[in-house]
Amino acid sequence: MNGPVGEIAGKGAQGAIAKVGASILEKLVDKGVEFVKDRQAGADLFLHYENKYLERYGIVRLLGMRQELALDQVYTGVRILDDVSIRQFESLEALEEIYRERGIRRLQQAGCRVDEDGQPENGIQVANQYSCLMVLGGPGAGKSTFLRRIGLAAARGEAQFFEHDCIPVMLELKQLKEPQVDLQAAVAQEFANVGFDFSQTFVEEALKQGKLLVLFDGLDEVPKANQDQVIDAIQNFVNRYGNNRFMASCRVAAYRSSFQNFTEIELADFDNKQIQQFIYNWFTTDVDQANKTAEQCWNLLNENSQKSAKELAQTPLLLTFLCIYYDKKQSFAAHRATLYRTALDILLEEWAAEKRIRHEPVYEGLNTELEKVMLAEIAYEG
């Protein structure tokens, strides 16, 4: 394999999935169930799944990027807030109260979780600690990227990153459009897609043994008519197969249901160290190295004239936009309004298009320009 996928496979593909899968097949063989001709055929099948998983979820390409990048080339470790801010969205009064308490425009809380030594606790520590994790955050906060990075570590067997031996399965919840939600069948379909003719039997055994890491991505993207069914299905699935590991993601403003057994965490905005790391991870070509592009971008971002750009940089999605903009222009927009207008277009239009979010019929006719008019009126009245 060449390109980003080859880089991903070369960095860690040691047959991690094949190793876990082999132990599951051994159990099935002991029960008298024969599926593959020999062990090598079974190993090849799992390696095929591993490579397909890396190909689908180990690369990123967002917002018109010229080329795909390996996920861990641009991934920056996340921090966790010390308190989930779901309550601020319970009512307009709650939103206003929290806004006034903090005295700042940004709604996110300042403090981050710390470990026993008083050091900031990162997302990887939390993912290793809890078997059921609900990852919350704002639009473009990096929720899906975080789930993908955990799945990537599991697929490659990166024990120093994710310490549990599991086979990752990514389920994009927006695909669950049928009235009847069968998550076990959805998991089996992921394996069937890469040639597992015995996927149903294999998945049942894997779940019984607690060998799967099921990643439920985008609870807020589930069609409105199906949300209750999906929530019930996830809860029942986790209750039935609780010895596996589960992670789910959702926008904090859309999260309304507390799941049993799930620990809720909220991703914090990037701090200066994370912004700098992201920029240095982004500009890594030989040309960038020779021209010190990352250093120049970081230095410019810290100038007093770029405070508005620095504020946007706290969100991973908009920091991606800034890196792409700087790569093209070798500068940032001179006028704050220009920068904010472009960032707003990304959040309202390009980001939604990239995620293939489908609006309900009630939103027909609600285009980007009308949304801007409505937001402007809300801002004026507020």
Task: Give a description of the structure.
The protein is built from 17 helices and seven strands. Helix content is 51%, strand content 9%. The longest helix is centred in the first third of the chain and has 19 residues, at 39-57. The strands form two sheets. It has a five-stranded parallel sheet, sandwiched between helices. The protein is of the alpha/beta class and 382 residues long.
Count of distinct strands: 7
Which class do the helix and strand fractions yield?
A: alpha/beta
End-to-end gap: 54 Å
Secondary structure: helix percent:
40-55%
Overall pLDDT score: 80
Count of DSSP helices?
Answer: 17
The largest sheet, given as strand count, sense and whether it forms a barrel, is: 5 strands, parallel
- List unreliable stretches of 5+ residues: 1-13, 103-110
**CA-based shape:** globular
* Rg measurement, Å: 22 Å
- The proportion of strand residues reads 5-15%
Order of helices and strands: HHHEEHHHEHEHHEHEEHHHHHHH
Q: Which strand order do you get reading across the main beta sheet?
A: 4-5-6-3-7
Please, what is the oligomeric state? Answer: single chain
